[in-house]
Write a structure and sequence with these properties.
By secondary structure, the protein is of the alpha/beta class. It has one domain: 3-Layer(aba) Sandwich (Rossmann fold), CATH 3.40.50.720. The chain has 10 helices and 12 strands. The strands form 4 sheets. A 6-stranded parallel sheet has the order 2-1-3-4-5-10, sandwiched between helices. The chain has a two-stranded parallel ribbon with strand order 6-9. It has a two-stranded parallel sheet with strand order 7-12. Helix 4 links the parallel strand 4 and strand 5. The N and C termini lie far apart (40 Å).
């Protein structure tokens, strides 16, 4: 049976992956208490002890604004740690699936970014994530880098959806940036995409990826899959669009709401320490060619996530 080391198992994406990865093999989930991503020896020790066939790195330093003043910490976790994972995976003959970000781009395009487009991060966070990508590519030839964007989910301490739900219950008016455009993406759908990629990695080229007997077989790496892929939900939205959709769906489900007005503002109206790309829609064409279908529209995914979130935060009370 394949052994999968899931790094960041306690985060919002990691907890979704704990639900989707088990059909691929034995999942060994590690969080901050087990693997210190700022400590190279801790990373190496955990990987060497686990001896995985596949490492899935769902962990990251994601405090985009704090990264401007905590560059060393962001680089340790986002750049150096993934590089070490790639080095250790290569030594073991294991595959690595690493989650990256739309923030490696500068946002100057007005059409979806492909995997071939030039990177040019405009924030310390984006720079640290790009260094992680480069380190992986230098240390391994058995990797998949999956860039995604605007991630939210039921798990984890904070994300845009949870923040909006809290503010909607506390305030009469919310002001939300309307001139930054991307694609809200549910962690549940990212987890399913990663699991599908893991299934493809474990197949010999030409084999049926739906064959159940292959799911728990030792990984036989398909080198043609190595590279960078983009994955988000389908569709496009601004943060303002996203906030309005959260309000509309939350109202239908019965979330407690006090807010009366959601007001669109510009980026200049809401200055932040870190600069964000104005346009960061990612093209999913390359991944579609592999898996055969586009992911659900972001509004559909949001509805499913909020329904799930409401069920265990309200109906259980």
């Amino acid at each position: 049976m394949s052994r999968i080391l899931l790094v960041g198992a306690t985060g919002q994406l990691g907890q979704e992956l704990q639900r989707t990865l088990p059909p691929l093999g034995e999942v060994i989930g590690v969080g901050r208490k087990t693997m210190d991503l700022a400590d190279a020896s801790s990373i190496r020790e955990v990987i060497r002890e686990a001896k995985p066939n596949l490492i899935v790195n769902a962990a990251a330093y994601t405090a985009v604004d704090k990264a401007e003043t905590e560059k060393e910490q962001a680089n340790l976790i986002n750049a150096i740690a993934p590089t070490i994972m790639a080095e250790e995976a290569q030594a073991l003959g294991a595959d690595l699936i690493h989650v990256s970000t739309d923030y490696v781009f500068d946002g100057q395009k007005n059409t979806p970014y492909t995997e071939q487009d030039a990177t040019n991060p405009v924030s310390a966070y984006g720079q640290s994530k790009l260094k992680g990508e480069e380190g992986i590519q230098q240390q391994s030839d058995r990797y998949i880098i999956l860039r995604t964007a605007w991630v939210y989910g039921s798990y984890g301490q904070s994300n845009f959806v949870k923040t909006m739900l809290r503010l909607f219950a506390e305030r009469d008016e919310i002001r939300v940036v309307a001139d930054q455009v991307g694609t809200p993406t549910w962690a549940g759908d990212i987890a399913r995409a990663i699991t599908t990629l893991g299934q493809h990695l474990s197949q010999e080229p030409g084999k049926d990826t739906n064959a159940t007997q292959e799911a728990t077989a030792p990984i036989n790496h398909d080198s043609t899959l190595t590279g960078i892929y983009h994955f988000t939900n389908s569709g496009v939205a601004s943060w303002y669009d996203f906030a309005v959709a959260i309000f509309e769906e939350a109202k239908q489900l019965g979330f407690p709401l006090k807010v009366q007005r959601i007001v669109p503002i510009t980026t200049s109206d809401y200055p932040t320490p870190a600069k964000r790309p104005a346009y960061s829609v990612l093209s999913g064409t390359k991944l579609k060619a592999l898996v055969g279908d586009y992911p659900p529209h972001w509004r559909q995914a949001l509805r499913l996530m909020l329904d799930e979130f409401y069920s265990y935060t309200h109906q259980s009370k």
